[in-house]
Amino acid sequence: MKLLSALASATALFVFCAGAANAQACKSPVPDSALVKKGTLTMSVNPTLPPMQFVDSSGELQGMRIILGREIARRLCLRPEYVRIEFSAMIPGLRAGRWDVINTGLFWNAERARIMWLVPYESQAVSVSVVKGNPLKVERPEDLAGRAIGVEIGGFEEKALRTLDKSLTDRGLRAITIRVFDNFATAYQALNAGQLDAVVAIDSTADEYARKGRFDRALHGLYPAPVAFGMKSKALSEAIVGVLNDMLKDGSYAKLMNDYGLLANGGPFAIKAPP
Predict the structure, then answer these.
(1) pTM (2 decimals)?
(2) Looking at the structure, do residues 8 and 119 belong to the same domain, yes or no?
(3) Of 9, 17, 33, 43, which sits most exposed with the smallest number of CB within 10 A?
């Protein structure tokens, strides 16, 4: 029901300003020079993280981040366009000018903040998913020692898993066998097939898989961190900050976060630079 409510919110939020009259009334504050394609907000997404970003049974993109990206485009008087691509290609693609925004749940870190403009807009942590019934009795991080664990390549989740592995081996426990996948969908498929002992994913995705009854979420809330949009253009980043602050004031941001059970920002949004 939560997901249906959120999808209903998408219909209410997203009405693109089209037609000659609207086009004149709706002038984007973002200069064409700051965009990959004139009049378009091009966003990269890896739609394998339900309920945050996924493809529904009709092949359409859905999820909180899809809704939020479309609403930002609408308020900037731009046409939203999504490029579906694996996470590992997103930062190189942004730097090469293939899209304007990385909209896929990019965890903030200082290294990334030195090569792009990052605007945090939600908080996430990581979970450990196991097969239904938790037959391995995973109840604490130490129970993952010596286990084969899957994760998407190149993201915060992989870094968190490697941090956990080091903390275990530093204490004399067995190393984790880390197996990386192009995306989380294939990692969960491997878990379902008995090829893994667990999968590490963001809390919201692990919770969604658990709600569907296919897996259990053995651990959650590990390594909490801010999640951000990533942009190459400072002008676009500042415009997106303005939209998010407007949404904060009118309540639409808090409503969207609530629809997905996420903790909303209490203060104003801003570009977060490295220390």
Answers:
(1) 0.80
(2) yes
(3) 33
